[in-house]
UniProtKB/TrEMBL annotation:
Residues 1-22 form the signal peptide. Its EC number is 3.-.-.-. Coiled coil: none annotated. Keywords: Hydrolase, Membrane, Signal, Transmembrane, Transmembrane helix. This is Serine hydrolase domain-containing protein. The keyword Metal-binding does not apply.
Amino acid sequence: MFRNVVAVLCLALPLASGPAPPHDPAPSSVDAFVAAYREATGLPGAAVAITHGRRVVHAAGYGETASGEPVTADTPMAVASVSKSFTSLAVMQLVEKGEVELDRPVRGYLPEFTMADPRAARITVRQLLNQTSGMADSAFREKSLPQPDTLEGAVARLRTARLATEPGTAFSYHNTNYQVAARLVEVVSGRPFGAYLDANVFTPVGMRDSRTVDTDRDLPGSARGHLVVLGRAVAVPEPAGFGNGSGGILSTAGDMARWLIAQNNGILSPQSVKEMRTPSEQSGEYALGWMIGRTGRGTPVVQHDGDLFTSTAAQLLMPESGYGVAVMANTGTAFGDADALMDGLVAMIEGGTPEIPSSPPFLVTDILFALLTLATAGLAVRGVARARRWAATHSRWRLLPYMVPLVLCVMVVPIMRVLLRGGDIMWVQVVYLYPTFMIWLVTGAVAGTAVAAARLWARRRASMEIVVE
């Protein structure tokens, strides 16, 4: 631990004035940064890959998986929506072969793609990949509807769906776009999506430990993740969901290093690479499975993040210097550990200082809600014990405020959808995002209902006793 702290402090020495040119961070400095970050945040495990041109600068694993095994450079972990870059590549390979045209309607290649909206016939392949198809969570509740088991099923459940906007007029990040794109690859190539990726992406690139899965049930122990509650990581299963094509790839630090190198090594023609890295006018930053942006120091980057409720991932390319970074972390989207580690590693490449959090995320908030939960439970016990005394002096209408937590429990999903601007979410997913708050809210709902029921029962008994007398 002391060596880790010293190494990180060394990274913080004053830099010469002016921006430093990108350079390889020392593997020992990377290890020290990740170790210090994990110690500060309680992050159980992570995997990191840094490349430069055709070289692997560093690829390593840290900590433990949810099943207690050490994370190494060869441990398969979930990359979540980073998978979209792979799906886009698969489509672009078919484009280069002349089997698919980006600006041709999807239905020309995938006749089974039908919706209860005639405008869907105009959705093009490009609009799937840059997320301007008109499909959106606000019109199709992809997460809260029954989940499919296959890509074919993911497309079939669209038959009763409608579009939120006219195709090509608005950007909306929607996983179903990429599930339809992956199914298109299956139909055009005549092979299951996983088999296509293995033969045309993973094997040629040398990603021997990577694969794609359909649902949360297919995640191996190494790819399962955690919530962090009161500063402690708790291994939990991923909420039920379908992710093939949009977020189903499992990979390792070593394989992601090979993937990053392949982006600078002729994996596609220069024209196809340009297509993949040209954002739509509607979003200004989302291209075909990649996002275009800049680092805090202004360096142009091509990147994509990935979020599950129990793990996160991130990848980034710096085209001008040829650097690439990939990170997988086994905590969920509420904590943003992959992005935070990515920011630190990019800062090191750019000659800056990586930031180390001072404490686990939301620790103070968790403590507050834990205390509120205990206080709520204690007040409920007191309220039930004094129900008879209360019933003798109060009107039953005074019980209405006790039902507010129950109403909030019932309404939490609609409220969250408003806060997410139409984004879809399930009740259990809200629990994963805000565990201590939801524990307090459920405790409050149970406590309020119990107190109200006890006091109503006490009033009834008191009334019956009066009648008997």
